[in-house]
């Protein structure tokens, strides 16, 4: 099973603490990177939130955002009037100094840091239980989106693997004929030689030259890599990094085959395989 690294999920919840919006989005990344944007009043729980995300997601760039509009029935905050007064005096002095006509507005003052102070009782264990529950739900929704996209990636890559397997089998079938024809052409060129000793040496050279275009060993390794790739794809949770490594090794063998073979027919098939492998590797960049 594949899990895509891209997806998003949003959950809005009203509670006695106010209205919350939980927003999660994830993107391609070599490792797990978590970016959190949460209200200052909830910063003490940031480490726990990141641990929760790590328990659900293993790779990708994850952006997590909480929007919170405090409210509800509980009066869990108070106004720091002393700080509010200092803010006003400082801003009013600056206004006069700059010759500005506009008065310092109350709405502006209320947005300044630490003017609204939340009581410790307000950030109670019940609130953290509420947050953990809803963050988990949002994470599960995100993973469902990622799994659906992963299923499409799995289907596409599986089709391409089948194409590669078919082409490699076609190459395996025609390879003996290609080698035989190559030997025949070499022997034909050397047929005028009459010396038995020289002909024996030439025959040995023909075998050596024919061996240089024999890609049997490379095909065996490609089959081995294909088998490992398919086995990894069948796992309950496939690793995108491991699959990419296997496909890279497969591509190395395919390139060697392309450099050795002298058949236009086989060369075209190898180019087709390389194209499919490139598409697979591109898709794998999005697999967790």
List keywords for this structure.
288 residues, alpha+beta, Ribosomal Protein S5, domain 2, 3 domains, 4-stranded mixed sheet, two-stranded antiparallel ribbon, 6 strands, 61% helix, elongated
How would you characterize the overall build of this protein?
The longest helix is centred in the middle third of the chain and has 65 residues, at 125-189. The chain folds into 3 domains: 7-75 and 121-147, 2-Layer Sandwich (Ribosomal Protein S5, domain 2), CATH 3.30.230; 77-110, no CATH class; 149-284, no CATH class. The chain has helices at residues 46-56, 81-97, 106-110, 125-189, 196-212, 216-234, 240-260, 264-284; strands at 7-15, 18-27, 32-37, 60-70, 77-79, 116-118. The model has no long low-confidence stretch (mean pLDDT 84). It is an alpha+beta fold and 288 residues long. The protein has 8 helices and 6 strands; from the N terminus they run E-E-E-H-E-E-H-H-E-H-H-H-H-H. Helix content is 61%, strand content 15%. Strand 3 (32-37), helix 1 and strand 4 (60-70) form a beta-alpha-beta unit. The strands form 2 sheets. A 4-stranded mixed β-sheet has the order 1-2-4-3, covered by helices on one side. Strands 5-6 form a two-stranded antiparallel sheet. Helix 6 (216-234) packs antiparallel against helix 7 (240-260). The protein is elongated, with a radius of gyration of 33 Å.
């Amino acid at each position: 099973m594949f899990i895509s690294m891209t997806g998003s999920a949003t959950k809005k919840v009203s509670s006695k603490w106010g209205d919350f919006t939980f927003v999660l989005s994830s993107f391609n990344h070599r490792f797990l990177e978590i970016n959190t944007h949460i209200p200052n009043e909830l910063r003490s729980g940031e480490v726990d939130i990141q641990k929760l995300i790590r328990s659900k997601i293993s790779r990708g760039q994850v952006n997590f955002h909480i929007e919170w509009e405090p409210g509800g029935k509980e009066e869990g905050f108070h106004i720091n009037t002393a700080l509010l007064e200092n803010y006003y005096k400082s801003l009013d002095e600056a206004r006069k100094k700059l010759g500005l006509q506009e008065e310092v507005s109350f709405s502006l003052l209320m947005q300044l840091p630490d003017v609204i102070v939340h009581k410790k009782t307000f950030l109670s264990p019940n609130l953290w239980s509420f947050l953990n529950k809803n963050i988990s739900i949002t994470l599960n929704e995100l993973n469902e989106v990622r799994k659906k996209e992963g299923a499409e990636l799995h289907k596409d890559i599986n089709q391409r693997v089948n194409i590669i397997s078919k082409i490699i089998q076609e190459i395996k079938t025609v390879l003996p004929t290609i080698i035989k024809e190559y030997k025949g052409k070499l022997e034909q060129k050397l047929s005028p030689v009459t010396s038995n000793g020289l002909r024996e040496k030439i025959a040995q050279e023909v075998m050596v030259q024919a061996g240089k275009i024999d890609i049997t060993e490379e095909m065996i390794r490609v089959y081995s890599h294909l088998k490992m790739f398919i086995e990894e794809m069948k796992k309950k949770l496939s690793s995108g990094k491991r699959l990419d490594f296997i496909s890279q090794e497969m591509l190395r063998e395919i390139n060697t085959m392309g450099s050795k073979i002298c058949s236009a027919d086989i060369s075209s098939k190898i180019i087709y395989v390389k194209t499919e492998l490139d598409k697979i590797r591109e898709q794998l960049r999005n697999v967790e």
